[in-house]
Each structure stands twice: as structure tokens, then as C-alpha cells.
Amino acid sequence: MNKNFVGIILAAGEGTRMKSAIPKVLHPLCARPMLAYVLDLAKKLKLSKTLVVVGNKKELLKGLLDEYQAKAVYQAERLGTADALKRAQGALRGSSGNILVLYGDQPLLQAKTLKELMQKHLASCASATILTVSMEDPLGYGRIVRDNYARVTAIIEDKDATNEQKNIKEVNTGIICFKKNDLFKAIAKIRPDNAKREYYLTDAIKIMAEGGLRIESLSIVGDMEQAQGINSRQDLAQAQKIMRLRILDNLMASGVSIIDPQSTHIDYDCKIGQDSIIYPFTVIEKDVIIGKFCRIGPFCHLRPGTRIEDRAIIGNFTEVVRSRIGKETLMKHFSYMGDAAVGRNVNIGCGVVTANFDGKNKLKTVINDSAFIGADTILRAPVKIGRKAVTGAGSVITREVKAGEVVAGVPARPLNKFAQ
Length: 420
Ligand code: UD1
Ligand code: CA
Known about the structure:
With 420 residues, the chain is of the alpha/beta class.
């Protein structure tokens, strides 16, 4: 069914209310640009093609669009949503008969809602099928106007609505399926004679209804927040909260324990194995993989490139970045591992720190299996610790420690040498 649709994602708006130098749709939710979530939806729905209408600063979007093989269509001037679709018309020759309009600033939409909408659109043979939602406070949204038979006759934008129309609680989410040919015929008739002097896509509905074409709608019930558009940093924070809870829910459903979802932040696409436990006040950034039966936190910060293997314990006030921590290794308190490869069954004592940056380069630390790193050891990278080696409390390691060797001091030396 989905091959009957081309997805058009509108993303040319300037996002003025974000007060930002970067395009609104690149602002991240849980470390993923909001537009990427919308592109994910289009991909999940297996649409025949996805076009993205972009505006100024389009070069900043290029990387992301290439990643998804989505075609960019340029809208030089922001003349309104109908004009944005008109820009895409040329790229639609010979493509599927229906269009699904999506917005780049609605990352919370769920694929199942869109599937239902597309199904209804095809089954009813409507010229347009609108996704609507009822809101207690519909301020700012286009209102759905219906006749006595409950048929949709128009969408009236907030700024153009009469007081009576302003009382309508059912609004346009912005997501609409169209029959391509009917849409472009209607768009040709749209004029910018409204409060914003813009070409409103929503005027296509009135034009179609007046022409006797069939308009259908589907109302979101339940998960209403999915239609939320992001216009300001406040909206962004709200949406981020929802996305964060969705990520945590998915992890819990897959067998990860999260003791306190309210104080836990996990970015998009982190992998955590079954029966691992995440304690409160933990921040896990993108590109982190954690094995099974691990214990993480409280107060732990795992940054990109972290790999934690099964049954490892990363305790309180710890930070790990670009490092691998082997199976059953313990790093229970006040430690920092940066650019480190740590083997299995290693004990990293309280307060151990890798000094991995020399002011210019990030340097590697290797700690082999079953080593014992004493409390407060500083590992000045690049440095290697051999299997079963031991460093004394407070040592500063500046050169390789061989397997089985015991070193201590500043700089650390083999203990038997002290004896001499
Ligand atoms: C739009 C709808 C409104 C609906 C609301 C839902 C219109 C006229 N109104 O209003 O009925 O209730 O969304 O959130 O469509 N864009 C472009 N080029 C343009 C103008 C806009 O690409 O020239 C993009 C924006 O980046 C944005 C989307 O289209 O992603 C919607 O535009 P916006 O101006 O935010 O429309 P609203 O006033 O919110
Ligand atoms: Ca909007």
C-alpha cells in the first residue's frame, strides 16, 4: 500500500522562535535531530519516495538527507505551506498517485497512526484525508470546520478564524494525505488573501470540498502528544521529555531495569543488555553499548564510544568515554576512563584517572585482564598495564607495567626496586 504514497516533509520554516543559528529541524531530541525522527518514519512506512522541502541553510541539512537518500527541494522564499508543496511538484512527475504531507518539526508522530491514516485515505478514495486531534487549548492551530452532516468543509487558520470558529476544539495536525492530481489542481487556485499573506495548504481543503471532492479525516485519540509541533525551546524541552520516556520504556520492555526513570537520561539508540540495572541520576549518551547483568550508576556519565561488557559494575561519580570496559570489571567509585581498553576482571580502585589528553592529542591506555589498579592511581597515557599487574594507591604510572609486576610511587617503580 505504501508504495502508493510519496512523502513530502516540510522543513523550510525559519524556526524564528527557536532564536538559533541552526535550522530548527536539526535541533536534537535525545541526541538525534528532530528531522531524523521524521525521516525514520518515512523509511519505516516504506514510501515510494521522500522529498524534503528545505529553505535557507539547506547545506546544513545535506548530510542527514544523503544518509536517508531523501531528495531536497528548495523553497527560496517562505511563502506558505501550499507554496512549499508547489516547489515539490516538479520532482513528482511520474511518481505515485498519493502524497503524505509531514512536518519536519513533528518528531513524536508514530508510524502506526500514519499507517491508519494512509489506509483510510486509500480505502475511502478521498481526495484528502486529514489527521486531526481535539485540543483543550487549540490556540495557534487550524480549526476543522464541518457541515451538518459532519463532513469537513474547510480548515480555518487561527488568525483568520471567527470567534465562533475559534471555539472549535478539533484541529489540523498538519498531517494530510492527498490524491496528487487533485492537490495540485487545488493548489493552483490558492491565493494569499489571509491574515499572514501566505499561501495556505489548508485552503486546498475548502477548494476541494466546494468542488464536490471527498474529504475524510482520522482523529488521534489517546496518544495526543504525538501531533505536537516544536516551535520554541520550551516545546523542544517538552518533546525531549516525552522522547526520553519513550526510550526508557522501550529499554524496560526489553528487560533493562531503570530504577528511577525521572532522573535517568539515555540518548537515542543506546544498546543495553537484559538484566542490567541503571541506577538514578545516570546520563548515557549516544553510541554507548552495555552488556547483560551490568550495574550502572548512580551518578554515572557514559559518553559516546563507551562499550561496557557483561557483568561489569560502573558505580557512582564515574565517567567513561571512547573506552571498552571488559567483562566483570569493577569501577565502583570516582573514576574517569577516557580512550582506554580495559580487559576482564580488572579492579579499578576508587579515584583512578586516565590522563588521556596531552593538550593536543587524545592518548590510549590499555589495562589487561585481572590487573589491580590501586585507589587514586593516575595513568598517564599512552600507557599499558600488563595482566595481573598491580599499582599501589596513589601511584602515577608513566611507563609500561609488565604482566604480574607490582608498582607504586610517583612516578611508579617496581616495588622490589624500593627494597634495594
Ligand atoms: C500549520 C497549519 C495548521 C496546523 C498546524 C499544525 C497551514 C497553513 N497551517 O500551521 O492548520 O494546525 O500547522 O502544526 O498549513 N513550511 C515550509 N515553507 C513555508 C511555510 C512553512 O516549509 O513556506 C513548513 C514549516 O517548516 C513547518 C510546516 O511547514 O514545518 C508548518 O508551517 P508553520 O508555519 O509552522 O505552520 P503553522 O502556522 O504551525
Ligand atoms: Ca508550526
